Amino acid sequence: MGFGNKTVMVIDENDTGLDNATAFDVITTQRSITKKFRKTVMISLLQQSSEVFKLFDDVVNMIEGHLMYHHPHPEALGTFKILVFEYPLRRDKAETL
Predict the structure, then answer these.
(1) DSSP track, 27-75
(2) Cβ contacts of 60 within 8 Å, gap of 6 or more
(3) What is the number of domains present in the chain?
(4) pLDDT of residue 52
(5) Mean pLDDT of all residues in the chain?
(6) What does the pLDDT look like over 10-31, one tens digit per residue?
(7) For position 66, which CATH number holds?
(8) pLDDT tens for residues 62-72?
(9) 20 vs 48: CA distance, rounded Å
(10) Which domain does 66 fall in, by range?
(11) In 3D, which of 47, 54, 46 has the Cα closest to residue 73?
């Protein structure tokens, strides 16, 4: 997908069927390639672990094609807590987002 002189790579659920360690390795590799070539990549994940979640610069939540949230990932958990969003017990917060 291209926007003017910029290119955005969109990857949909590239962690499907992978265990957490392999998903972490895939996202780490994608991140290093992205940084090296100074590209923008958007990746949708189904159920990421906290370790994978921490690899991302920003969190974007969309519902039915509408942008609901976009901020740097360290702010995400706190923002949802302020909005009185309760995280399920014994469930990874990153997975819940």
Answers:
(1) HHHHHHHHHHHT-EEEEE-SS--HHHHTT-SEEEEEETTEEEEEEEHHH
(2) 42, 67, 69, 70
(3) 1
(4) 86
(5) 78
(6) 888 888 888 889 989 999 999 9
(7) 3.40.50.300
(8) 778 888 778 78
(9) 8
(10) 2-96
(11) 54
